[in-house]
Amino acid sequence: MSTQQRNSSSSHGKLIAVVIAAAVVIVLALLSAFVWPGWAMNKSASEEQKQQQTTSAKPQPTTPSIKAKELPQDATPLLKAMPDTVVNFARTEAAPSANWTSASPLEEYTLTYSTGNIAKDVTLVVAQWSGNDTAKTQYDTLVGALKGTDVASGDVKVSGNATGKYVVKANGDKGKTATAVWQNDTVVFQATGPKDSIQRFYSKFPL
Asked: How far apart are CA 33 and CA 71, in angstroms?
């Protein structure tokens, strides 16, 4: 074999060795990243978690981008007590309703509060009774009918005094929506909508 042939063979052998070594390094890198310590997966999960934390930490609007709908001129004191806005939700509808007629409320209304995005709307039913006991009975009935996962519960307090209770539950649709029910003396409220909307809405509702 000539010197040129030996050099060519040697170069070819070195090239093969380099390719094999590179392949081994790549395989080991993949194994170390995804199979053994799971570094790449952990990194991805960590980055996703950071993104979620960044999203959740994003400040929420505190004022509406839409105007609240005016109440009718003959609105009762109860209806007039309903706020025009709650954080960035504005009242867009308010009308008499009869969802709780069997409980004989003095008056009852259904209101819609919106951010301008219908997918985030909150529907609020409010009614008043002549006494605290009858309002409490309706509150207990509504709470007893709730299905889903507990989100929050506690006392409703006015000037430091307990005037009723509240319960918030994520509904049985994988927690996408939620319902908040609360009693304040002779008045009972039920708010229903997307879970995020309900959590912001009920906690800032002034009544």
From this structure: 62
Neighbours of 138 (CB within 10 A): 21
DSSP string, 65-123: SSPPPPPPTT--HHHHTS-SEETTEEEEEEEE--TTGGG--SEEEEEEEESS-GGG-EE
Retrieve residue 41's tokens: 């997966």
Task: Compute the CA torsion angle 63, 69, 71, 77 (nearest 10 deg).
Answer: -20
Contact in structure between 205 and 166 (CB atoms under 8 Å)? no
Model confidence, pTM? 0.72
Helix spans in the chain (H): 3-30, 39-57, 77-80, 132-145, 195-204
CB atoms under 10 Å from CB of 104, counted, come to 11
Cα–Cα dist 198/196, whole Å: 6
Q: For 118-140, how does the pLDDT look when each residue is reduced to its tens digit (9 = 90+)?
A: 999 999 999 999 999 999 999 99
Using H for helix, E for strand and C for coil, what is the string for 141-172?
HHHHHCCCEEEEEEEEEECCEEEEEEEEEECC
Indicate the residue type of 68.
A
